[in-house]
Structure formats: structure tokens, C-alpha cells
Amino acid sequence: MLGGVFHLVRGVHVGFVLAREGGLALIDPVELPPHLRLALKVGRSLERRGVSQQPGASPLERAMTRLGPSYVKFGQFLATRPDIVGMAAARDLERLQDRVPPFPQGVAIRMVEQELGKPITALFASFSEPVAAASIAQVHKAQLRDKDGTLRDVAVKVMRPDVRAQFARELQAMRFMARMVHAMLPDAERLRPREVVETLARSVMMEMDLRLEAAAMSELAENTKNDEDFRVPRPEWEMTSRNVLTSEWIDGIRLSDRARIVAEGHDIKALGRSVIQSFLRQAIRDGFFHADMHPGNLFVDRDGRLTAVDFGIMGRLGMAERRFLAEILLGFITRDYRQVAQVHFEAGYVPRHHSVDDFAQAIRAIGEPIHQRPADEISMAKVLTLLFDVTALFDMSTRTELVMLQKTMVVVEGVARSLDPQLDMWTGAEPVVKSWIARNLGPIGRIEGAGRAALALSDVIADIPDIAQRIRRIMVRVDEESSEEARHLGRLVKTEKQRAIWSTLAFWAIAIGVLVLAFR
């Protein structure tokens, strides 16, 4: 009870801050039921005077920053879900900067020593002041001394003290608010607000175990080891724990510094193409992609290779989703809109009561404008907005992994276009998509698929004796339980029969007694 009151108060506080900072202005009242339109009108009346004309940060940026680090992280997560908050809000939330003052150097050193079990001087030849700080952790530059005496620069990421307890409290409040949204606006269940909060909870919990980030870094490095235009720093496993992550230090130029990249003589067009193709290789070829590829997390090294850092937010796609993505992209590239629609139906994303042809018509309305305009005028953000409109029209439930993929694609497009404004996304995507389809859906892929199916079938056949034994044990147990239930039922019947007999005898005894008394 008290917990519910606390969460309600916290939810009211969040709503008040959003209202004061003008964050409610982004909500379209037309799509709300009458009681929520009234609540929105009351909320809008609380806006600070002139807040919409204030320069600098957007309303959502100001509100999330005021609410604290947990909500900054939540806002960054919602930036990957424009299907829920809308494209305008998602663009505002993209600008949220997860930057907070660093915690003291001494606290970081004590945590590293406690986690790694040695004095800091025994672990590193040097250990700098924080070079970057965020809501979950901060980064220090240090030096490792190899056995041959060589010094290597490394990045040491240290978890912020007490951050887990703080996020746990905020997540409980967010769960409560998601339940309230579901209760007050049942139509929002298509957007799965409760699932969104749980996805955020899983994402944050994984970010808070730096061993898992090291594992993501290691997996991505393994997947891309043969890619000549992309690389990933490797973790130092012996110097990594739940609260400390040590990895290779990256010397490079941030992709946001275009002028310096040009001054250093790097090929801007090739780099923009690498951004697009590296992302698509990760998503389609490997099914495991960096889902936070903003310019602050991407560098170009001295050899001109794209280098990524910060692997707290990753996306994963199964083979079915990868095939779906590849065929969707190829369908747009080749203007085969019925194939695009058919893929949606085969994947089960569109309910069967809708028409494939009607859906193909809606997809054509998205695709044709793309092919009527120059490459540098095509906005993937606009395409994405239209896709979300179509999903609502055809009762499609949102798929978190695909929405994250689509949103990451928009961010990647923005990064690539900042390097090469004339970049053609579709031309850049085509070699990766066609190569994967030829490899996985062509003759070789079909043979390999048949081999996997045969292997799965052989596993099933090998398991038949064990399955038969299990079924036999289950049937015996059912028989025993049925027999026991039958015996129990028999005892109940016998008891009830005896009770009925004695009740009847008692009734007759009473009746006879009454008659005797009546005739005395």
C-alpha cells in the first residue's frame, strides 16, 4: 500500500516536471479519449510562462535532466522507440546528454582495488583523473605494463557507487506508471508500455554488469575481425569485473569532428559508406549490432578505420528477423512492394484478416516517394514515420528488436550524412543486402538450411526413446493420481452416504418423537 502511494507521488512529480518544462506540448490530444484530453489540458496550464521560446535545450531534455540520471537514461532509451513517443519527441530525446559530474578519484581507486584485489599501483603503471562521466559509470585513462616491460594505454570504466539501488527505485515507479497507462488508455497496449519498461530494466541491469559489456565487446570484435574498415577494442579480461571494465584505449578522431577528419586526409565518402555498411553487416550478417552508434561513440583511427566504443546498448536479431530485414530492404531497393508485404505476412507481423494487396499498396506509398527524389534528399526518418503510421493502420504489434533496429538505422544515416551529405543510403546498403541474400537464401544457404533441418530431425529421433520414457512416467503418474483421486472420491461418497443415512435416521427419530409427544 505504502509502495503504491510512493510510486503515485513519484508519478505525479514526473508529470508535474514534464508539464512545467513544456514536455506535454508534444502530445497530440486528437488521439486521446476525453478524460485524458482534459488531464492534458490541465497539465498544459502548468507550463512555465515563455518556456516554449527558451533557447537551448528542448522541453524533454530539460524535464529529463531535472528528473535525474535514471530519467536521462530512460529518455535515451525512449529515443529508440519513436513508435511510442513519436518522431518529434524521439528527435528531442536523442539530444539528451548523459553527462554528470564525476565522482571523486579516491572513490574510483578504492572500487578498482576492491574489485580487482590489488593496490592500484600493482594493477596499473598510471591511473588518470576521470576523462568522461555518465549516470552509470565514468572512464579513466590508465597504463598497463606487459611482462616485457612495454606500457599500453587502456580505458578503465568504473561503476558509479550506489547506482543500482537508485535505478531500482526509479524502475519500480516506472513500472507503476506503465500499469497506470495501461489502465487509463487500453489502446496503448499495442505499444506495450509495460514491456517497454521491462526492456529498459533488462537493458539497464545489463549495463550495470560491466562483465556483460565486456562480453558484448568481445563478441562484436570476434564477428568483425575480418572487416577491413571497422574494428572494436578488445577487453582485458583479467582486469575486468562486475564494477570495472578495462579495455584497449582508442586513439582517434570522433566522427562529430568532421573538419579534423578532413584535415587529417581521411576519405569522407568512404567513411560515410563504412558507417552504413558496418551497421548492416552487424545486423544482417551477424544478428548482433551496436545499437548506440551516435557520433560520440564512433572514431576514425589513424588508418582510416571506423572504431566503436561503449557497448552497453546492443541489439540482437534471430535468423527470421535478419531475413525479414534483408528482404524488406531489397524489396524497397528493387521496388517490389508486394514482396515486402508478403514478407510481413509470412513473418506473422500483420494479422491475417488484412489483405496482402492492401498492405502492399500502403508500402508503395512509402517506397515510391523515395525513388522519385535525389539520394541526398531521402530522409530515413520520414520513411520510419510512415512505417509506424502503417503499422498502426494494419494492427501490427510493435517488435522491440525491430524498432530498435529501425531507430539505429536512422541514427546511423544521420552520422553517415554528416560526413557525406550526398550519401545514397540504398546504394550503400545494396551490396551488403544482396551478398547476404545470395549467401543465405541461394543454393548454398538452402543446402546449409537443409543440413540444419536434418541435424535437428536427427536430434529429435535420437531423443525419441527418452521422450517415450518420459511419456510413460507421466502416464503412470497420471494413472496413480487418477487412482488416488478415485479412491479419495470413493471415500467422499462413502462418507456422504453414511452422513445421509444418519441424517435420515435422525430425521425419522425426530419425527417419531414428535408423533409420540403429540399423542400423549
From TrEMBL:
It holds the Pfam family ABC1. Residues 125-501 form the Protein kinase domain. PROSITE patterns: PROTEIN_KINASE_DOM. GO terms for molecular function: ATP binding; protein kinase activity. InterPro entries: ABC1_dom, Kinase-like_dom_sf, Prot_kinase_dom, UbiB, UbiB_bact, UbiB_kinase. Keywords: ATP-binding, Cell inner membrane, Cell membrane, Kinase, Membrane, Nucleotide-binding, Transferase, Transmembrane, Transmembrane helix, Ubiquinone biosynthesis. It comes from the Bacteria. The chain crosses the membrane at residues 500-519. GO terms for biological process: ubiquinone biosynthetic process. Pathway: Cofactor biosynthesis; ubiquinone biosynthesis [regulation]. NCBIfam families: UbiB (TIGR01982). Belongs to the protein kinase superfamily. ADCK protein kinase family. This is Protein kinase domain-containing protein. The gene is aarF_2.
